[in-house]
Amino acid sequence: MAEIIRMPKMSDTMEEGVIAQWLKKVGDEIKPGDILAEVETDKATMELESYDEGILLHIGVEEKDSVPVNGVIAILGEKGENIDELLKEIKSGGDGEDSKESKEEPEEESETTNSESDSKTETQEIDTSEINATVITMPKMSDTMQEGTIASWLKKVGDEVKSGDVLAEVETDKATMELESYDDGTLLYIGVEEGDAVEVNGVIAIIGEKGADYETLLKAHQQQGSKDADKEKTAPKEEETEEKSSPKSESKPEKAADTSSSGSNGRIKASPLAKKMAKEKGIDISLVKGSGDGGRIIKKDIESFDPAKAPAAVEASGSSAVVGQESYRDEKVSQMRKVIAKRLAESKFTAPHFYLTMEINMDKSIEARKSMNEVAPVKISFNDMVIKAVAAALKQHPKVNTAWLEDKIRYNDHVHIGMAVAVEEGLLVPVIRFADSKSLSQISQEAKTLAGKAKNKELQPKDWEGNTFTVSNLGMFGIDEFTAIINPPDACILAIGGIRQTPIIKDGEIVAGNLMKVTLSCDHRVVDGAIGSAFLQTIKNLLEDPVRLLI
């Protein structure tokens, strides 16, 4: 008897899983313990193991597609077993009564649009079984990713692709990552141009046998979307096909005729490495001629670029054409910047912020740091000392180490300090875990490692998840004082200004003192003024007498 394989709940927070790769195909014999597929959850990529034996009769989820917990993934059974009725039951459970009626009377012509659509879907599914091609969709590359931007295509239509080949570079909200192929075949279709964004699970490309009917496969993929998407797509399918093929047809002549690195929309076509090198060398990349595919600027173009030749073309046109001329350029918002904008806007306009500012005399901290660095295995910074003081203060004031969860408040017993790090595309917040139990040397080493990973786009999900409090330091940029927006789900964030010498009164005399201003941003739904003030006072006491940090 056939057995339905459903998506298991592989973590406490998992709501759905993405089939990263099928390791078995329809018709394969399965034994208990065999790995059916690799599943990408909200925490990691894990193996889906079979607990039954039989023949894999049906696969209900394509690679790169997501399915909710308990959703049907596959069906196992005996060889030749008829599972049509079982499939009808599964489909009717999601499609409702209309789909039941249309499937019970397949020979009768239906006058309603819904039944026509259902019958077409069934026919389309049968047709795709004979098409030797695979739809490549946008994978979810981070826990917060909602869409990705194709930074550059490394393959073009017609290229032979092998499993493991890198198809494209994808810019997510966290980093620029490589999109790897899990299939062999020919790249038949590219659905997203360079520089354009596509939502997670959106169609990127199709790989398959040369000459395969990928257009039919595209239609079938569209019909397998959600009910809302199906309703919107009940318009004639020919128009949709024309709309999707038109960008492709327009891009081909553009690539053939392109002799420069600029596209028709003014976007510079260059690899991420070339852009990075140009910025480091101070080269205006728009002046560089690309030698890569379609005029794409690559590493060797930057290395061989002669800046002395570029200004000559500008001078030849006459200085009057340049002086006083208005100009501007528009850049597409990066995925990282989109997520930062969304999360911080939600925080600012959802959480009622209030701010507490305090001055801290850092004279003793300066002396202590100098002494510690004479024996410390790594150089300890003032930021490391602040993180240690914050961690110790959070243990004394647990009401600050909290999170607002709408219908409840979470009091965290552990202390994970988020450390805001500025990178070119925005702001990342790697997390120092259990900071209260670590020494200053350990905090310093971990902070340097995480900051380096952030700037090199090497952070993994475990590096940025789980913060219970955040510290943002702009003191090294000469900022005396600022207010920071709370980093969800934290209840507070501490903004650190620079240390500056200023006159203070000590023992009745005016002397030079080293003062540092800190500002605590609080979510008033969780933290009140008295609680925040007491927390700041504890930090002040710890930094003004840093021996207490060692206790």
TrEMBL record:
Q: Where is the Lipoyl-binding domain?
A: 2-77, 133-208
InterPro entries, alphabetized: 2-oxoA_DH_lipoyl-BS, 2-oxoacid_DH_actylTfrase, Biotin_lipoyl, CAT-like_dom_sf, E2/Pdx1, E3-bd_dom_sf, LAT1, PSBD
Q: Which cofactor does it need?
A: (R)-lipoate
* Molecular-function GO term, any one: dihydrolipoyllysine-residue acetyltransferase activity
Please tell me whether the keyword NAD is annotated for this protein: no
Co-factor remark: Binds 2 lipoyl cofactors covalently.
Q: What is this enzyme's catalytic activity, as reactions? A: N(6)-[(R)-dihydrolipoyl]-L-lysyl-[protein] + acetyl-CoA = N(6)-[(R)-S(8)-acetyldihydrolipoyl]-L-lysyl-[protein] + CoA
Q: Which PANTHER family match?
A: DIHYDROLIPOAMIDE ACETYL/SUCCINYL-TRANSFERASE-RELATED, DIHYDROLIPOYLLYSINE-RESIDUE ACETYLTRANSFERASE COMPONENT OF PYRUVATE DEHYDROGENASE COMPLEX, MITOCHONDRIAL-RELATED
Q: What is this protein called?
A: Acetyltransferase component of pyruvate dehydrogenase complex
To which species is this protein native?
Answer: Cyclobacterium jeungdonense
